[in-house]
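Supplementary Note 3. Input sequence used for the single-chain structure prediction.
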Amino acid sequence: MSKKVVMSAMLGVTLVASLAACGGQTNQPTNNSGSASSAPAASGQKTKLAYWTIDRHDADYMKEVIKKFNETNKDNIEVEMTVMADNFNQSVDIAFASKQAPDIFRTNDFPGFVKKGYLLPLNDMMTEDMKKRYNNLLVEDSNMVDGKIYSLPNTGQYWRLIYNVDLFKKAGITEPPKTIQEMVEDAKKITEAGKDIGAYGFAENFKNPSSAFSRIANPIGSFSGTSVLDGYNYKTGQYDFAAYKPIVEALRQMKQDGSMLPGVESLDIDPLRAQFAAGKIGMYFNHSGEPAVYQSQFPTQINWSAALPPTIDGKQQGTVAVANTGNYIGINKDTPNKDKAWKFLEYIYNLDFQKAYHEKGLGISIVPDVNATANKPAMPGIEGFLPTKFDALYATTPTGVAETKVEGTKLGNVIIKYMLEGGDLDKLLSDLNTRYNAALDKARAAGETKMKADPNFDPGKLQGSLAK
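The predicted structure, written as discrete structure tokens, is reproduced below.
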């Protein structure tokens, strides 16, 4: 056996051992079902359930929640939480392969976890009232597959234009832009007015081209009523990058105007935040996680706010697609303690917990009755991110699988190159359509996506689905 193979085997054993230790399962008997949980407890004995999460930001609060559950539940259940913020998906894979998987875990890679057979369908456990409560939030490939519900939603990332109020005032701008043309003009005004302090009108984390462009194009495009998200047109079931032409042209114009922060093409998200906190950036796009960032990671003295994104023509004909919304936690399909694991999910997927989580600013709810009854979250800066009638839940696009099969340069890199160098935009967008639709055909033929055309899709009809 080669040294390389031996080292690989040793590494695998080490990872498995460390996972077992992290999960608090080293003294638990491993059963053949693929779960590291204890066997069903005899009457009066505690049943220990392992819960793995990727969330670090709410860990202290969740410890309190789980402590209360452990002390008050009538079923002798004791949940042990482990935070695994790094390499979470890989850790789950290794745990299932070694039959040391947790009983309950964050469905961080929902499509992958379902495809690998990790998750238990919840349909038969849910009451009719619970099904009614979540009815409008059940979306194929987001929390269910072929009608089987594997997880339920809790919170989501609400996308906004984030702007420096002080710089806007300095430039004589009274309100955030309503159109992308106004955004271009405002960025130029801010840059001119901010010369004395080295401030610029616009920035995004273009070091990661795909992430940067999606942060801009998705909220603008979906709010404009294009029916396009991640380049995918829900109505036609095909990629339609031409819908993004005005957005791409606006980025090119801001770059040509000198309105973007210098070196923006190599800017990562945290350096961007640092520059924004220092008062050097007028506008950028991101989601509702930012208020917490400017409270702890990058404390700032600037006056900033968030607004609904501009649209292509000023008409708000669509809705802003809320990200990372459809699923939260699920149950290991092989745990011998399915009913007791469900008791914990019931405790989490209820109005009281979700209201408290929302009100503490740990995440903004997408559940309508929470948004209708909860108090405003206790987090400075959160006001502009709160749900509106213009926010909505969209089905997951097939772009994740399509991009694994795309030949040639991917979307983000094509767009950023055009932004920096120019070129024939129509030709570039047409070429993207050809290559991405060919990749989509391959993904469909391989059974990797079931997404198909929905001629009746109307993003405007989604208005009011999460909040009034």
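The CA atoms of residues 14 and 95 lie 12 Å apart. The two ends are 65 Å apart (CA to CA).
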